Amino acid sequence: MGLCSSAANKSNNGLCLENRGGNELSNGSSSKVPHDSNTVPSTYESEGKILQSADMKNFCYDELKEATENFSSDNLLGEGGFGFVYKGWIDEHSLTAVGPEMGMAVAVKVLKQKGSKGQQEWLAEIKYLGQLYHPNFVKLIGYSLEDSHRILVYEFMPNGSLEKHLTRVDFTGTEYSYNEPLSWNHRIRLALGAAKGLAFLHDEAKAVYRDFRASNILLDSVRASANNYNAKLSDFGMAKDVPAGDKSNFTASISGASGYGAPEFIRNGKYEVSGALKAAELARQCILTTPSLRPEMKDVVKTLEHIALEMR
């Protein structure tokens, strides 16, 4: 029980499908499309075509129940707009479910949102992460499409999100934990990693991320030393293809994380360029190494009030 045998495989009607070859993960390798490829299927292609083109394992629902100990609350990692995320364990080579702490840890995300929006986000994750590989993208190992269940299986990121490491105190719901602050060098390295991921998505895959926030940047340890992390983008559910040709009308459709817009595609509207430049200049003045050259707070207030008036 919980395993998907080839004799029991069903057709593509919401039941478990046969797992295609070439999706084993060994020694950190990936068989997905290399990160210099831009062969992502169109947003408007069917569910069947997207699933068929994704090179990853199709898990049975019972398999993931076994991997997460029946989606135990003890294995709950978090909850977001998409659904609940559980920690599970699978064999590193066969990708079959194993007991706790006996195999490779994975993050199992279970869709809770009913309707077309949740389905679209689930498909978008498979569409992009199922075919694109980049060292600054979280790795999507597989999915489950069985009856009404929509589940995604990712590599497990034990260091959590960047958001967690930007705050000194983290409240899990039952207890407080204290995080060691990130050094300036680590912050710059993480920013660089996230920027590389975005640049690849924009330039090579011709898509825009639309949900850029600290909680969607996961941290992977580069070495065993403390705070030595590699940034990986996660949650591609709101990603969208960039239309070919004239992009003048594309800005209106960018509606992801509040406060972020891909700079290549923001040309007008609420993102006022002059105001952004003035704010950046004010920030530069506030961190001048010579204290006497920094603006007084009353001048900071005046500048910000002027920027605010310009953006009305």
What does the model show?
About 10% of the residues have low confidence. The relative contact order is 0.11. The longest helix is centred in the middle third of the chain and has 20 residues. The protein is α+β, with helices and mostly antiparallel strands. Helix 6 runs antiparallel to helix 7. The strands form four sheets. A six-stranded mixed sheet has the order 1-5-6-4-3-2, with helices on both faces. It has a two-stranded antiparallel ribbon with strand order 7-8. The protein has a two-stranded antiparallel sheet with strand order 9-12. The radius of gyration is 22 Å and the shape is globular. Helix content is about 25%, strand content about 20%. The N and C termini lie far apart (about 60 Å).
Key features?
six-stranded mixed sheet, alpha+beta, two-stranded antiparallel sheet, single chain, 18% strand, 7 helices, 312 residues
